[in-house]
């Protein structure tokens, strides 16, 4: 008797969809790749052909150069071999998608990375009923419960206003997190210019080209130190304690990440103002999503796999950990 999803082959380097002769988010170059989103732990260069949303293809082109890309819009379905392939929003970053695979009457959803919180920079997650739901578990422990996004942004603005002779230097990853912090600040009424590290320029420009309004952004290069007092400055996390930050007016170091829930991580990075702002679902959102979708089986690709598998088993949901290799925390 055939087992559910036996036409999928999980490998350490990705998920091989045998009847489509294609890989989902392969970590090594493959002839045919189905890519969920543009973060480097899911989207690698060098594939023979890539199926992804137009936004993800644009992000991959910005990072890796021109791609042999086939754009698939949200709600669109294509056929590869014996498999129908559809893309629906994942709510993770701009262009992120869940990949819906239908074969032999079975439906499998590969969620990639996802979140359930509203995000002004990307389309919201859409639940899809399925037989097998392949989920991440980056924050798959009950200790991870993300606070309200607006409250975290208000902490940032309050610290800025309380220290007019200093700047607030926010470390945020270049794809997704930096743009979200900027857009969330704008949504809270922060209309002042925001200064950015040169490493953020290209992707911020791309977001603007793709219709995500970020307001006035000014490169830090060449700006006098005193001119940035009382302003927000954005940089990649690697620059928070770098020589580069010495050109800033007595910066208050902040970092936007779900990992800021872990105090030791904040201390390790010398973060004065931890901002718990994640682009992944927290524990409650992971489990609520599984209850909403009600799949027959759950496969966990990466993160804190054991706790989520255990949660499923206690609710009579078949679950397994896939232990895929190569997935990092680039996006959080």
TrEMBL record:
<dbReference type="InterPro" id="IPR026360">
    <property type="entry name" value="Xnuc_lig_assoc"/>
</dbReference>
<dbReference type="GO" id="GO:0004521">
    <property type="term" value="F:RNA endonuclease activity"/>
</dbReference>
<feature type="domain" description="Metallo-beta-lactamase">
    <location>
        <begin position="11"/>
        <end position="173"/>
    </location>
</feature>
<dbReference type="GO" id="GO:0016874">
    <property type="term" value="F:ligase activity"/>
</dbReference>
<keyword id="KW-0436">Ligase</keyword>
<protein>
    <submittedName>
        <fullName>DNA ligase-associated DEXH box helicase</fullName>
    </submittedName>
</protein>
<dbReference type="InterPro" id="IPR036866">
    <property type="entry name" value="RibonucZ/Hydroxyglut_hydro"/>
</dbReference>
<dbReference type="InterPro" id="IPR001279">
    <property type="entry name" value="Metallo-B-lactamas"/>
</dbReference>
<dbReference type="InterPro" id="IPR050698">
    <property type="entry name" value="MBL"/>
</dbReference>
């Amino acid at each position: 008797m055939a087992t559910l999803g036996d036409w999928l082959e999980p490998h350490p380097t990705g998920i091989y969809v045998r009847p489509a002769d294609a890989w989902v988010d392969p970590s090594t170059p493959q002839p045919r790749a189905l890519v969920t989103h543009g973060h480097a732990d899911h989207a690698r260069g060098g594939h023979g052909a890539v199926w992804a949303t137009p936004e993800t293809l644009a992000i991959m082109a910005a990072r890796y150069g021109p791609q042999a890309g086939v754009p698939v819009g949200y709600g669109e379905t294509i056929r590869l071999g014996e498999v129908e392939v559809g893309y629906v929003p994942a709510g993770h970053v701009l262009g992120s998608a869940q990949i819906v695979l239908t074969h032999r009457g079975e439906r499998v959803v590969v969620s990639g990375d996802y979140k359930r919180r509203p995000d002004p920079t990307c389309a919201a997650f859409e639940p899809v009923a399925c037989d097998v739901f392949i989920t991440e578990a980056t924050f798959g422990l009950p200790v991870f419960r993300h606070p309200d996004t607006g409250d975290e942004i208000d902490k940032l603005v309050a610290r800025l206003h309380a220290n007019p002779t200093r700047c607030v230097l926010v470390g945020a990853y270049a794809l997704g997190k930096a743009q979200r912090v900027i857009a969330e600040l704008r949504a809270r009424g922060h209309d002042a210019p925001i200064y950015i590290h040169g490493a953020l320029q290209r992707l911020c420009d791309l977001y603007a080209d793709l219709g995500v309004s970020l307001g006035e952004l000014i490169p830090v290069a060449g700006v006098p130190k005193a001119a940035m007092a009382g302003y927000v400055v954005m940089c990649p996390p690697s620059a928070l304690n770098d020589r580069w930050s010495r050109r800033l007016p007595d910066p208050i170091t902040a970092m936007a990440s779900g990992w800021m829930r872990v105090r030791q991580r904040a201390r390790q990075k010398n973060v004065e103002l931890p901002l718990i702002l994640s682009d992944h679902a927290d524990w409650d959102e992971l489990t609520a999503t599984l209850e909403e979708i009600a799949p027959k089986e759950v496969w966990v690709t990466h993160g804190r796999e054991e706790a989520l598998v255990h949660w499923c088993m206690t609710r009579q949901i078949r679950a397994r950990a896939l232990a895929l290799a190569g997935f990092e925390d680039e996006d959080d």
